[in-house]
Amino acid sequence: MAPFEALYGRACRTPVCWDEVGERKITGPELVQQSVEAVAVIRNRLKTAQSRQKSYADKRRRPLEFQVGEHVFLKVSPMRGTSRFGKKGKLSPRYVGPFEILERIGTLAYRLALPPRLAQVHDVFHVSMLRKYEPDPAHVLNFEELDVDDKVSYVESPVQIVDRKEQVLRTKTIPLVKVVWQHHGTEGATWETEDSMRELYPYLFASDV
């Protein structure tokens, strides 16, 4: 059923039908009944569409499961300086570990054997925060070098500016700098506004003086 038909109780006329006259008038009770029936049809079709989409998603989704005794990596979220930045230029997550799985909690959570260095972190994690133990130097960090907080986040600091450019808008030009972060290397460098970086990390611009 088209939105026009659901709203007005009749199909939208095409140019072929513009010369038709004498349409049947719909009065109060009949209009209410037709509206109720139209809403019911729309709801049923929405449920069918949602059910179909869910079945497609379930087929593509592979449940991630681990066994007690296995080792996994734990995802940690980097924060830049003392404040979180927006999604644009967001630093990708990294992983620490590996840690042994001590217990399965329900169907979607696991208890890990954390070292004393991470004592402030709750030891039960949703499966989405875990990763199969496959060593990858590009993504795995030594947690001994990090100050991980109770929200499983750590502070990431900029170490170098490697490039510059300008973003030209209608009314102004915004200078940007490409920043290399401490635990992300050159491949994880991001573009940031020069003004914000000068305010938060003035030491990066010492050579400009």
TrEMBL record:
Q: Which residues cross the membrane?
A: none
Database matches in Pfam families: SH3_Tf2-1
Q: Where is the Tf2-1-like SH3-like domain?
A: 69-133
Q: What name is this protein filed under?
A: Tf2-1-like SH3-like domain-containing protein
